[in-house]
């Protein structure tokens, strides 16, 4: 399949702040968001998924809250005599995590009440809208794995690069047990902190393992950009250098510093959005390195492009119901008909956003390395 960059660009700018069906009455049960700075009362969310903001800007003439990847959409706040600007979203937000920022008198700012997350090529404010299924990524009373930060040398880029590595509970107690590895990539405008912070991938794994719903494996997350790309120029991204970083530098480093299953059957690659594009390109170029492929809102595989290559054990395709679920399901059906073990998953009532990818990872993790 020829990957369509233009389609990816369209997906990248889909707002993460698409509203659910509006309610006639807004319930006044607002409480501070869990993503707030310590001790900050705003922003707030209510039980219906509305978000309310309050910003102190006494000299401002205009304050707008822009929600979603890239800041599409917005809520215009109303100023008061006390210098505070307040406003509530027009409708309920989709469940899960959203990036946002403030535009005050035309200048861009982060919300001083909220924590910051790297997205849209900068540290953006973030807000979490409670979800009906949030237990699967909640901090729970289960054994917890370790999330460690490592640095590895890269001759390809002439730098020392960073990665985050999740090791499952019990890893440090055994000197002999070896674990398979998932190489998991973030989306465009994000970095290696995205999956642990926005995606809560380590907590998802802890909960799955605590419930006996997945096999233990290591997760490796690194920065996927080797040539810096400005907004709107994703077509200028080149995979060659990052492919070298991943396959010739990072994988050998991980295999030499962690107890891995150092073969194709013990290795998988997955990515969301642009990370799916990277996964697609690298797994097709290096099918001998990975046995399981997963694209989360990140394109499709076709039987034709996989023909003649080492056959993957698993192909996982997913997206949100507000994206292109028909194409994802159709692609999986065609792969199955051609003899591939293909699975599709569609996240209900979500778009190109982290709730889609959290749910997608949850389902993917239950399938990985089961029959290794």
TrEMBL record:
Residues 1-21 form the signal peptide. Gene3D superfamilies: alpha/beta hydrolase (3.40.50.1820), Immunoglobulins (2.60.40.10). GO terms for molecular function: acyltransferase activity, transferring groups other than amino-acyl groups; hydrolase activity. It holds the Pfam family Esterase. Keywords: Hydrolase, Signal. PANTHER family: DIACYLGLYCEROL ACYLTRANSFERASE_MYCOLYLTRANSFERASE AG85A (PTHR48098:SF1), ENTEROCHELIN ESTERASE-RELATED (PTHR48098). This is Putative hydrolase. It comes from Flavihumibacter petaseus NBRC 106054.
């Amino acid at each position: 399949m020829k990957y369509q960059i233009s389609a990816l660009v369209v997906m990248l700018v889909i707002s993460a702040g698409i509203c659910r069906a509006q309610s006639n009455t807004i319930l006044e049960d607002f409480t501070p968001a869990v993503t707030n700075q310590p001790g900050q009362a705003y922003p707030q969310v209510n039980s219906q998924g509305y978000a309310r903001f309050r910003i102190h800007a006494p000299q401002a003439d205009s304050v707008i809250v822009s929600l979603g990847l890239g800041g599409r959409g917005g809520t215009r706040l109303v100023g008061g005599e006390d210098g505070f600007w307040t406003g509530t979203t027009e409708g309920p937000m989709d469940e899960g995590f959203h990036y946002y920022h403030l535009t005050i008198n035309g200048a861009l700012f982060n919300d001083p009440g909220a924590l910051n997350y790297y997205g849209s090529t900068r540290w953006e404010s973030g807000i979490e809208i409670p979800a009906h299924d949030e237990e699967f990524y909640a901090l729970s009373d289960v054994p917890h794995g370790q999330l460690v930060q490592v640095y590895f040398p890269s001759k390809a880029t002439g730098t020392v690069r960073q990665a985050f590595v999740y090791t499952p509970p019990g890893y440090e107690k055994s000197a002999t047990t070896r674990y398979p590895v998932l190489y998991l990539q973030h989306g465009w405008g994000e970095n290696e902190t995205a999956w642990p912070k926005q995606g809560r991938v380590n907590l998802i794994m802890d909960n799955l393992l605590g419930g006996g719903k997945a096999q233990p494996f290591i997760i490796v997350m690194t920065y996927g950009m080797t040539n810096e790309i400005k907004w709107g120029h994703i077509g200028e991204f080149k995979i060659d250098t990052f492919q070298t970083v991943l396959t010739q530098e990072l994988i050998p480093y991980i295999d030499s510093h962690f107890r891995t299953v150092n073969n194709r059957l013990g290795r998988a690659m997955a990515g969301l959005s642009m990370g799916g594009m990277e996964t697609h390109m690298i797994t097709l170029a290096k099918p001998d390195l990975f046995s399981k492929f997963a694209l989360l809102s990140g394109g499709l595989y076709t039987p034709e492009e996989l023909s003649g290559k080492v056959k993957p054990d698993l192909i996982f395709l997913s997206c949100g119901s507000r994206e292109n679920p028909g194409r994802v399901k159709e692609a999986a059906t065609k792969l199955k008909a051609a003899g591939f073990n293909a699975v599709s998953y569609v996240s209900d009532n979500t778009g190109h956003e982290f709730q889609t990818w959290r749910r997608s990872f949850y389902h993917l993790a239950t399938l990985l390395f089961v029959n290794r």
